[in-house]
Amino acid sequence: MLPTIATLRARIARGELTHEALVRQALEGAAAPAARHVFTTLYADAALAAARHADAAQAAGVALPPLAGLPVSVKDLFDVAGATTLAGSIACRGEPAATADAAAVARLRAQGAALIGRTNMSEFAFSGVGLNPHYGTPRNPADAQVARVPGGSSSGAAVSVALGLAVAGLGSDTGGSIRVPAALCGLVGFKSTQSRVPLSGAFELSRTLDTVCAMARSVQDCLLADAAMADTPLAVRRRPLDGLRLAVPQVLVLDGLEPAVARAFERALQRLSAAGARVLELPLAELVEIARINALGGFAAVEAHAVHRRRLAERRAQFDPRVALRIDTGAGASAADYIAMHDARRDWIARVEQRLEGFDALVCPTVPMVAPETAALLESDEAFFRANGLLLRNTFAINFLDGCAFSLPCQGAGELPVGLMLASVRGDDARLAAVALAVEAELEPIVAMGQIARSPG
User: What is the largest CA-CA distance in the chain?
Assistant: First the structure.
């Protein structure tokens, strides 16, 4: 398995590894063929400087923050002072450079993280697939034989972590953009409550739904990244699995599961149940209302159109045509329509929160499929949009809820990655993290059997 932050810290403390050596190995890996299309920019000098500073501080007996001197990647939609934020597009070339780091980037720097580079992404974060016609598509490392999509929109972030080039990948999640690639690449993704980490300096897709968060190799590593970005750790009180009440919605999220996903999900539920968790069916018919409330394209399309309408008018030919089509769906919404969507969502959230009372978490497959083959989605708009809708279907419900969620790997030996999503209501991040830690500990043995170490350290 890839080493966690605690494992790397222990090796460094024993003198088996230095921060500088780890970062050098990550930078060398970023130039290797397996990492093609993962990064759009590398910050080698700055990352090595941060690593050397951590080594010097440790040698002087200074206690280091958890991420100090460790490689962390940054999705290309976050402002980095002195550079134009392109957000996976060529349509933004020539626009003014950022004058300051995004809030999340600044907080990671303050923690001493070695920011090794900006990662590739779906253009303007508007896809759960991860394809990018401008900068190429990172290959999912889970399959050495067949080129498969990494998931999006935080595609490069996921592959940077899956290849062992970063201990955490800073990204965003508007409809699943952290959890989808985490699920397809066999990682842990944590979508916090939206208000937990500031959105300032993050290129907007949907101000209503955008969430700044990260993916990593374990729940604990996600919590360390979250603590740095939120500038305060969650107060997580560990809990045993025995007695936890897990709700399995019976509509929408279980529809059309691929056989591999259905098998892994059922196996995970059986294992959790055998360990004492109470796995309970929950009708949750409210999930089918999301499509009606979003009939005019939803918040992402309406708000993205407001962000990009001038660019589309002036530089439409520079957009990914599939992204432009999705943005176009938000053009017809009136102010009254937009307000009505907010009102309907507010009412929906209140009703769903009431349904989830008494449960420790909602549980379902993160996505209903394993990573699709890249070639088929490049060639066919129909195949692309079908896959995109399915990849985002389950995860989007939690963004619509303004909830929090983890995606945990649950596949076994010889199987492609499958994600298990645990979710709860807004503000329940600390309690959900305790559930995720307990579930991860129970599932870890079956997942570990199927993982191949790809660590640079």
Answer: 63
